[in-house]
Amino acid sequence: MEKIVVEDNNLKKRLDTYIVDKIKELSRTTVKRLIDEEKILVNGKKQKSSYKPEKGDCISIDIPEAHEIELEAQNIPVPVIYEDNDIIVVNKPKGMVVHPANGNPDGTLVNAILAMCKDSLSGIGGEIRPGIVHRLDKDTSGLLIVAKNDEAHIKMSKQIQDRQVTKKYIALVKGVISENEATIDLPIGRSSKDRKKMAVDAKGKNAITHFKVLKRYNNYTLLELKIDTGRTHQIRVHMSYIGHPVVGDSVYSNGKNEFGVEGQMLHARYLEFKHPITGEELKLEAPIPNYFEDVLQRLENNNKK
């Protein structure tokens, strides 16, 4: 149990921000979770993340130990794009869940990573998702960063929170988009109609997606997308909202895919970031999956008819 007594006047900082500044090994995401779980108390009482600490406040922080996880290491082939002693960047296959949850106890990326990295993975704040710094949806393929130690995890998470990581995707969407480039700046929050879905909502969190047309086909458009924020299902929600849903998206469209491909055609192709330990600039790219290339070739052939 750690305790912090606030000594500043007119602090004007949120509780979560104040704690992250004081305890460097905790990410803001972890702090918010600990606040929700009432493991962080102010003067013995629960407060919201947005609470502004005042002089004299006593903040108690119960940081759980990283516990042993009951997950099976499984020898599942996952392409590695980059690896060193601190991080590993993989090209997650389409259809693979990132971490175990109800309905997906195994066969996940975490199970595969456990087999690949053995005991060399971060385990911050009692997380049961060792090493996972960010995530991709089950049917989104592409680049994903995994931390091998806590320092790399903390610093990598901070880069993502500070929007210092460049993330670019490619997607095939329905319809022909007339603009060559555009930015979608629309807030996203939990859908009031279906809590399992996200939606554009004025009360949601800011979400910014930039897109550029790579190729136009008959009734389809191939896009490169760059996201400034990492909201859940951000690209899928934004593209559906403007009337050009990602092909195969069964949640934010009808899911129909005349090409026989299951799930949305969305691929995280490019990452640019600073190595969390060495500071080296890394620019990594994952090749377009074969199924994606096949579909584009079929569209190319149709364009020539």
Q: Can you walk me through this structure?
A:
The protein has 305 residues and is an alpha+beta fold. The chain folds into 3 domains: 2-61, RNA-binding S4 domain (Structural Genomics Hypothetical 15.5 Kd Protein In mrcA-pckA Intergenic Region, Chain A), CATH 3.10.290.10; 64-161, Pseudouridine synthase, CATH 3.30.2350; 163-305, Pseudouridine synthase. It is built from 6 helices and 14 strands. The chain has helices spanning 15-22, 28-36, 109-117, 150-161, 234-241, 290-304; strands spanning 2-5, 40-42, 58-61, 80-83, 87-92, 140-147, 166-174, 181-185, 188-190, 198-200, 208-217, 220-227, 266-274, 281-285. Strands 4, 5, 6, 7, 8, 11, 12, 13 and 14 form a 9-stranded mixed β-sheet that branches. The mean pLDDT is 87.
